[in-house]
Write a structure and sequence with these properties.
It is a single chain. The chain is 45% helix and 15% strand. The chain has 359 residues and is an alpha/beta fold. Bound molecules: fe (iii) ion.
């Protein structure tokens, strides 16, 4: 084997090219252009199912995907450090607040795509400008309420606004108020309430805390189940993970707590996004847009959403996820306030949190 590595490699690459040419011809793409194309993806999402999704993109277009994985902050820092020399073409981030921050730092390139305009509801994308749209949400997660039915009445936790009601004094638990998941929710609630009522609402949340904010969303769910907290906020996919878990202690948690999709009678439950944007200094803008359009296809939507127990954003696409169904995630009214208000209100909300003493 070690005698003829070059020949072997040549044969393998010829075989690969033949397959590539075949698949590219089938999909009507010129293989001469496609075979040397590489798309650089900077991703803060990493689920095993994403791999299948990317392989399918390569099969469809002949464009190879090179991925840099990191957490959201790491990817943003890397993009900033690399500047104009960055090889990044597409950036995948989680949460509207993080998208807004990266966007405000000029890390994204506005794009125009009739396909994306048609497929993805405008309220799940950045605000359009004459240059186009920067980020687009490709999956949503709901920010739901979890409560202990032994200590809290369902009717007292039907809305986000009620979480500030003195009735819930000493019962509320959340992760840090400054975490993007909370910042995004608060930015939309305060957009509707206005500054004065919004501040009073945040003050009310702080007054109702069972303990200073700490931990992640799953920690809040567990703290409700253990009796430390009576009511908490969490993203829906953390609940779906517990529902799917085969650990007895996770089953016990889900037997003990109840889940509410808030504001069903009014504005709808707040949903946040995981999404993508073309990198500011992409040298492959056409391929980057092509990838974004691929993410809106029913095939990719299924993987993108199900990979993390989320909901698809493309119009008319539905997924079958029994864990989400089990908590009512197949049938709820989602808030349609434009997530671009998150960008607009971010600084203000942070200042209001400081004033409220919300850690
Ligand atoms: Fe999360």
């Amino acid at each position: 084997m070690s005698l003829r590595p070059n020949r072997l490699r040549r044969q393998l690459s010829q075989a690969a090219l033949a397959v590539l040419a075949l698949s590219s011809t089938v999909f009507g793409i010129n293989p001469a252009n496609a075979q040397d194309k590489v798309l650089h993806l900077y991703s803060a999402r990493h689920y095993p199912t994403d791999e299948v999704m990317y392989q399918n993109f390569t099969k469809l277009t002949g464009i190879q995907i090179k991925r840099v994985d990191g957490d959201d902050a790491g990817i943003v820092a890397r993009l900033k450090a690399e500047g104009a020399a960055s090889p990044a073409d597409v950036v995948l981030l989680v949460d509207a607040a993080r998208m807004a921050v990266a966007d405000a730092q000029g890390l994204f390139r506005p794009i125009k795509s009739a396909k994306l305009d048609a497929a993805i509801p405008a309220h799940l994308r950045a605000a359009p400008t004459p240059e186009g749209v920067t980020w687009t949400g490709f999956s949503t997660r709901a920010r739901v309420i979890v409560y202990d039915p032994l200590r809290v009445e369902a009717e007292d936790v039907a809305t986000y606004e009620q979480l500030a009601d003195p009735k819930l004094k000493g019962l509320l638990c959340t992760r840090s108020g400054s975490h993007p998941y909370n910042l995004s929710l608060f930015a939309t609630v305060i957009e509707r309430l206005g500054d004065e009522k919004g501040q009073a609402w945040l003050n009310g949340l702080v007054a109702n805390m069972a303990r200073p904010p700490k931990g992640g969303d799953t920690d809040q769910i567990r703290a409700v189940a253990s009796g430390e907290c009576g009511v908490a906020l969490t993203n829906s996919y953390y609940i779906a993970r517990l529902v799917k878990s085969d650990k007895p202690e996770d089953r016990k948690v889900m037997e003990r707590v109840r889940v509410v999709f808030p504001n069903q009678a009014t504005t709808g439950t707040h949903v946040n996004i995981a999404g993508a944007a073309v990198a500011r200094h992409s040298k492959n803008v056409d391929a980057a847009i092509q990838f974004m359009e691929f993410l809106a296809s029913p095939f990719a939507q299924d993987y993108f959403a199900n990979g993390n127990n989320e909901f698809p954003t493309a119009k008319g696409v539905t997924i079958d996820n029994p864990a989400l169904k089990a908590i009512g995630g197949d049938n709820f009214k989602a808030d349609t306030i434009p997530l671009s208000v998150v960008a607009k209100n971010l600084t203000k909300v942070q200042q209001m949190l400081d004033r409220a003493g919300y850690k």
